[in-house]
Write a structure and sequence with these properties.
The structure is a homodimer.
Chain A lengths: L1 E6 L3 H12 L1 H8 L3 E7 L16 E2 L2 H5 L6 E4 L5 H12 L3 E4 L2 H17 L4 E2 L11 H7 L5 E7 L2 H13 L3 H10 L8 H4 L2 H15 L9 E2 L7 H9 L2 E12 L2 E12 L11 E8 L3 E8 L3 H17 L14 E2 L5 E2 L1 E5 L3 H13 L3 E7 L3 E5 L2 E2 L1 H9 L7 E7 L1
Parallel strand pairs in A: 1-2, 1-4, 2-3, 4-5, 5-6, 8-10, 10-13, 10-19
Antiparallel strand pairs in A: 7-9, 7-11, 9-10, 11-12, 14-18, 15-17, 15-19, 16-17
Helix pairs in contact in A: 1-12, 4-5, 5-10, 7-8
Chain lengths: 409, 409
Amino acid sequence: MLNIGLLGLGTVGTGIVQILEERKQYLENLVKQEINISKVLVKDIDKRRDIKINKEKLTTDIYEIIEDDNIDLIIEVMGGLDKPYHCIKEALNKGKDVITANKAVVAKYLEELTELAKERNKFFLYEASVGGGMPIIKPLKEQININEIQEIKGILNGTSNYILTKMTSDNLDFEDALKISQGLGYAEANPIDDIEGYDTRRKLRILSTIAFKDKIDEENISCYGISSINCDDIRNIKGMNSTVKLLGTAVVNDNKYYANVEPVILNQNSYFGKVDNANNLVSFVGDVVGELRFFGEGAGKFPTANAIVSDLIDITANTYPRNCIWENKNLNNINQLYEGKYYMRITTEKEIKDKIEGYIIDNRITENIIENKDSIAFTTKSISKKKLEKVVETFMINSQDYFIARLEV
Amino acid sequence: MLNIGLLGLGTVGTGIVQILEERKQYLENLVKQEINISKVLVKDIDKRRDIKINKEKLTTDIYEIIEDDNIDLIIEVMGGLDKPYHCIKEALNKGKDVITANKAVVAKYLEELTELAKERNKFFLYEASVGGGMPIIKPLKEQININEIQEIKGILNGTSNYILTKMTSDNLDFEDALKISQGLGYAEANPIDDIEGYDTRRKLRILSTIAFKDKIDEENISCYGISSINCDDIRNIKGMNSTVKLLGTAVVNDNKYYANVEPVILNQNSYFGKVDNANNLVSFVGDVVGELRFFGEGAGKFPTANAIVSDLIDITANTYPRNCIWENKNLNNINQLYEGKYYMRITTEKEIKDKIEGYIIDNRITENIIENKDSIAFTTKSISKKKLEKVVETFMINSQDYFIARLEV
């Protein structure tokens, strides 16, 4: 009998219970043992829930689960950072396999927890931490056994993609689109991780570390979000027959790599440009297999629970792909050298806009001035982003009053 | 030591030898044993080859490989049908694992060879038979452990997709596009399997059988190809702001399914519409995970060899997903009941065209007549395809003188 300790009974935790219940017989035939959720960590035992679950299984005491020698495997879907990290560590130390959906924990402690799991000869799996229901961690780990991955990029955050989709299709302003996405349960009450790109950065950190077989730190991934985008930007971008997406990109060449998260203006009919609502798309390029792309629902109760149950099956059947140890190539970050073409919009007083226009022309930054009315918007030649940051500094523009996106059209 | 018997040293076979050579150390570390291609079946031992290989390993006698008790695993990339089938069967009977890229064999003998492998407790894997380098067989087998698959569709044949891409982008006629694709090595000297849809049908037979956990026979998949498409069709389709792709589609509902291979007219900016050249795209919808899409190069030396080496790693590490036995649901085929909107073009004498125009109006088949000049082309209301076959019969139209595509716009 496989005894599971489930940490968290929110949306995803409930989905896991439902899948394991509904497909109980099939899954037990498959893994040739009984599957039993023996204990569930909750905040409030008496809370009304949508599913039937034996109250005796519920506990508010994490140690009742971690110290229970009958529990073989922990599924962590409680959210947060420090507490789940300690729980996962303790569980591995106690000889339990661990599955988590927690991208914050994985992004911060990937190497440590992977190493610990290896020492204890246990699994530490986290398919649900990136791409929701889309299988991406496992396929990537499989492909790196045959391929050198040269590039990985993705639309990795459902919330920000939903907001950009709504702003574009329904001409909504940012705040209204955000509110709708919160109403649908996509965005958190505090959506900063989604809209500032931090969530995308965590996922890119995880994917690029696996892809490049070297630790790619979050601090080495430059990060711009979408919180300052407005209707003028959407109108300007549409005027370029384009669309805008929050993309995470990491590219390696020789021993150098760059990695960034930023809004990117794309042809509206390109593959990435066509990914709408809360969907995710990840593409990577291997030297043997060429480009592979994976598309799926980036979040949601059942897709996320599906990814966790996939990991559970692999652990129980012992079918998870093996990998050689990370090669620790000590790749050099060259973000500082990266140059691209950009779109920039600044909203400020008329006088300053005119000065900015002079400045960007004098400094040979601009390729095309799109407008100088309500705001000034322009596209650049291929430059370092630092030159745009210099504009902002020079004219003391508030972070909410400008928007920068890379041009990939 | 893992001893491999390689059957065939053509393009894909050569690619396998190269990958195993170049990544020898990594792969041997990974699977914790030496990997040795011990014998290779070829047609001509003295043929000049692009790779260095010890001539003593080459043989023209299949039994020298199959009867060799030191050989643990067979990779079949020789092509054909009867001979590779017998080789695979014999190899499994002799207790060897088998990997094949041969979609014809897999389509015809999937159940028998799967069953035989199971009896012998050996692997019979065929990732390379569908989608080239794109992982699709394994992800699908993983998802069916959690999901009921409701629909699967794909652009599954690189050659026909390349031809349609060239006809559309370069305004080539069919014969010229076919010649270019043959020059690039995509199409066989006899391209009938590609252009008549038979190759797509085989792959759909394989995927839908796995997806629906029931044997979906080729004879239950209706099949139309692209061999009669001409420049008029491309022009008409472009006039509808659309594009045309050869799609395999299988949909199940309750205990009923329909499955077909046919040209489909799609919005040119849709996901399937955007897949160009020899690329493949497969989408399937599960009740838990939602829609997943997989994109990759549909053919080619290294992508195909990549898929085979993936299977090899899974066999050696014993990490291939387990599945419960097919459920043999005895699904009912309802292809006959399927109704859709269609585009049809018929090229014939003026007199007959006018009679056809009268016929399709009288029989309330048509929704819109696109042209009645060089040829007659029209779109239909939602009808059974049989009504269009009736038109062809009634006016005794030669199969090369008409083209039918389903409308999905």
